[in-house]
Prior knowledge:
By secondary structure, the protein is α+β, with helices and mostly antiparallel strands. The chain has helices at 2-8, 38-45, 61-80, 94-100, 102-105, 128-137, 185-206, 288-291, 314-325, 358-368, 387-397, 431-443, and strands at 12-13, 49-53, 56-59, 84-85, 91-93, 111-114, 120-123, 148-157, 172-182, 211-214, 224-231, 237-242, 248-250, 269-284, 294-296, 302-304, 306-313, 342-345, 377-380, 401-404, 415-420, 425-430. It binds zinc ion. Residues 242, 244-245, 247, 262, 264-265, 267 line the site of zinc ion. It comes from Petrolisthes cinctipes (Flat porcelain crab).
Amino acid sequence: MYQSIHRLYHHHCLSKIFQPVNLKPKDSNVKKDEPMSLSQKLLVETGIISLRSNGMFALLPLGQRILKKLMMIIDEEMISVSAQRLTLPLLTSADLWKITGRWNSTGQELLSLQDRHNREYVLSPTHEEAITSLLRDVYPLSFRQLPLKLYQITSKFRDEMKPRFGLIRCREFVMKDLYTFDESEAKAIETYSEICNAYDKIFQRIGVPFIKVAGDCGNIGGSFSHEYHYQAVIGEDTLLVCHGCQEATNAQLLSDSVNAVCSKCGSDMATITGIEVGHTFLLGTKYSEPLGGCYQNKQGKPEAAHMGCYGVGLTRVMAAVVEVLTTSDNIIWPWEIAPFKVCIIGPKEGSLEAGVTRWVNHLAKVLSSLPGYEDDIVVDDRHRLTIGKRVLEARRTGYPYIVVVGKKAQEDVPMFELIHTTTDESCYLSHHMLITHMRGAAQNK
Ligand SMILES: [Zn+2]
């Protein structure tokens, strides 16, 4: 019993969190002419990520919290479509990639290595070969068990010629990849549209406006695909969006993109740039035929499964939402994935108002017990620093709300400053009003 009450009142203290703020990239790791994006600069300077070598970043504890929240959204939406999570090895036998032809077609972006027996492996950028060989090896899997939907959330590798923009285009990144197996093309299309709906929900829950476009199948192949993009100046994909009906497409699909006219309504299309954060593909039997990825059909015979594959770049989402929402040196996080939702700051030790410090832990307890704030309250308990300095850091890191326990907490009716960093509004509220306000804030998200 005590345990559960104790858990309910849990909050975090910034003094105990490893967050190396203002960590500048070392010159040896960044070439002078490397383009720097806003998200790269801010995520490094606020100690959320750290550049470890060219195109490779450590996700520090705050970055880990953001990643975990993205994973939770994805896991919940995957459960709702009966997809099951697994983990495949990061290394895939090169033999499988030779069978599908991608060993050669992927080119130098493919990272590979040899083990002590001189066997070759791919440090996988994607797992179509690996998952299809799994289906092959567990044969016979009955048609009754289809559709089968398997996904993982793991590190992926791509040996970019020029890694850039931090987590937007790096060499090691975290991706969620889902693979589906069906009996027929018709059933695979049903599954495809079910998963696309789940993807719409994932991006709706992240809460940043996104654009879904007909996509380019590229090196993955297959019959059709859709891409999910965030509109951003640094985006590397050119998209055409219809002024009339909002229909959108990747410009790579059109041979003449100069005078593009919407195929649905005939209106002119605007050209914008996007960061691709999700991609869905209907693959057909492109992988199951050559790799023997078969299920057992009604007649008891092996038959190649009709596949789909679906990716979300989690670390890329982390950076891309910053590119979309942030306009100054203060990060704006979407509510659902902010590293903490509220940062509480008390008076500097030895200051005249130091007597009100007791309110800090009290507010942390009360706020932690409100629905939507469990485990999401952090106290900046570095009391040797001024309130101003800590508010500045909290704004830069992008906690949606900052509560300041300062001078006005000494009044007969103690007043607390509430700063909503997302809108840059602030006001003074009594204890009761503060709790009411925060309860409402969580409900309206
Ligand atoms: Zn249109």
